[in-house]
Every structure is written in C-alpha cells, then in structure tokens.
C-alpha cells in the first residue's frame, strides 16, 4: 500500500510571530520556517507503518513556493521515499490545496492519505475533511492511534473529554493529532541520502486545477499585551491577592 503524506511549510513553532506594521499579515521576512508539527507526526506515522510492513512506499507532497522543497527533503530524510512539490505563488487556500491533493491521489492511488489535523499558521483544520469530501472517501480525523488490518483501518480519535474508536474502509483519509506519536529526528546520513531521493515538481495547470480565491485576509492583530506577572512570598499573600486584587476568590 502506498501512503501519501501532505506537509505544509509554516513558521517554526518556536518563533515568536510578529505582525506587520500595516496589519496586512504576519511578518515572514527572515523568519525561520519549518514543517508544520502535525505534518511531522503524519510523516512519522507513515514511516512507522512502512517499518511494520503495512506500507510499501511513502510519497510526501507539499504545495507552495519553491522553498517548500526544504520540508519535502526533511520528510525524505525522516523516511519518505519520494517527493512531489506543486509549485504555486504564495500558499493557496485549503480548498485549492484539497483539489490539488485530490488530483495527485487520483494519479497515485494511495491506500492512505495522512495529513496534519491543522496547520499552525492558518489554524484552518479543514484540508483533510475537504479532501475526503472531494474524493468521497472515508475520513478519520484527530487520530491518536492508527491500526491497519487488511482492507480497514481502526483509528482512535481525540474528541472532547475522551477517545472514540472508529473503523473505516481503505482507501481513507486520516488527520494526525498531537498524541499519535513522537516524531524522530533525522540522522545526518539520512539527511545526506535524502538529497538523492526523487522529487517531482508539478504546477496546478499541469494537474488541471484552477486555484480558487474565496478568502481575503482583511487584517491581522497581535494578541493584547499581558501585564507582567509578580512573585508572591507566601500562600497567604497569594490568597489575599486572589481575593482582593484579582477578585477571583471570595
Ligand atoms: P489546514 O486545514 O490548513 O489546517 O491544514 C491541515 C493539513 O493539511 C496540514 O497539516 C497539511 O497536512 C495539509 N496541508 C495544508 N496546506 C498544505 C500545503 N500548502 N501543502 C501541503 N499540505 C498542506
């Protein structure tokens, strides 16, 4: 079975995001970029399924500017076999990404597509769901455990206040949640080997997809500044402040 994993290039989660002075977007100038953390978990899961003999090939795909190839190479260093980069100007909206992924799924026929549950830049949490709808395939979102058996996959899902286990027929779409696994680090030899793994570059035109433009970013606001914290010297002082200053205790 082939597995297709979608990885998005986003601002590294360790970076403190700055908003541009004119509030038109976040500032990406000289900012460290990385693979979306949920996509790293998706790649790790695919690699583990290959190590268990469930998957035969892992194809990793990223959509966006040329620099996305860095994240594809990272995924190749982590164990994916080949990459596909769909080159676009800027980053298309979720529906366009889902349409492009759907075309690649039609070409490659993977048994599983694994995505992150959410990209930490746009926080959309919708690409996997849209892809499943476009392909009319079963979806198991927010996966925290994945077990493939014959032509089905059993998925534990993180839901409010607990876990839900569902079984879906293959081929299927899965989105990875935080506790699915702990991604490995790429070793230096594997980073070197990844440079020689195949990476195809395609365009939306070649795939026959017209990118939609349904969303306009109106403005971005940074969160309100928080007041600096203080250190208290005793429990009594803390209780006093909670009662009389914060007024959260009576
Ligand atoms: P979102 O729906 O935008 O929160 O993204 C959910 C998941 O869809 C991500 O974790 C990726 O697996 C995938 N995805 C979204 N945008 C892209 C992109 N430009 N290239 C590749 N995968 C993407």
UniProtKB/TrEMBL annotation:
Matches recorded under InterPro entries: ET-Flavoprotein_bsu_CS, ETF_a/b_N, ETF_b, ETF_beta_N, Rossmann-like_a/b/a_fold
Biological function: The electron transfer flavoprotein serves as a specific electron acceptor for other dehydrogenases. It transfers the electrons to the main respiratory chain via ETF-ubiquinone oxidoreductase (ETF dehydrogenase).
Assembly information from the UniProt record: Heterodimer of an alpha and a beta subunit.
GO molecular function, one term: electron transfer activity
Family: Belongs to the ETF beta-subunit/FixA family.
Superkingdom classification of source: Bacteria
The protein's name: Electron transfer flavoprotein subunit beta
PROSITE patterns membership: ETF_BETA
Start and end residues of each Electron transfer flavoprotein alpha/beta-subunit N-terminal domain: 23-211
SMART domains, A to Z: ETF
Entry keyword set: Electron transport, Transport
SUPFAM superfamilies: Adenine nucleotide alpha hydrolases-like (SSF52402)
Cofactors named for this entry: AMP
GO biological process terms held by the UniProt record: carboxylic acid catabolic process
């Amino acid at each position: 079975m082939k597995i297709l994993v979608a990885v998005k290039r986003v601002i590294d989660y360790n970076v403190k995001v700055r908003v541009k002075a004119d509030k038109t977007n976040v500032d990406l100038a000289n900012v460290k970029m990385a693979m979306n953390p949920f996509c790293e978990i998706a790649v790790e899961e695919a690699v583990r399924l290959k190590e268990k003999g469930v998957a035969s090939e892992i194809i990793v795909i990223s959509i966006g500017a040329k620099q996305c190839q860095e994240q594809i190479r990272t995924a190749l260093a982590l164990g994916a076999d080949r990459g596909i980069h769909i080159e676009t100007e800027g980053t298309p909206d979720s529906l366009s990404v889902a349409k492009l992924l759907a075309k690649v799924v039609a070409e490659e026929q993977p048994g599983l597509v694994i995505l992150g549950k959410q990209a930490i830049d746009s926080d959309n949490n919708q690409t996997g769901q849209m892809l499943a709808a476009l392909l009319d395939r079963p979806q198991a979102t927010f996966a925290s455990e994945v077990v493939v058996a014959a032509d089905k996959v059993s998925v534990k899902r993180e839901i409010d206040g607990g876990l839900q286990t569902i079984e879906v027929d293959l081929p299927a779409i899965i989105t990875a949640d935080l506790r699915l696994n702990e991604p490995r680090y790429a070793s230096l030899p594997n980073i070197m080997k990844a440079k020689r793994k195949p990476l195809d570059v395609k365009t939306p035109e070649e795939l026959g997809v017209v990118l939609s433009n349904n969303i306009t970013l109106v403005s971005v606001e940074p969160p309100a500044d928080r007041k600096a914290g203080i250190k208290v010297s005793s429990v009594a002082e803390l209780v006093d402040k909670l009662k009389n200053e914060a007024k959260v205790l009576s």
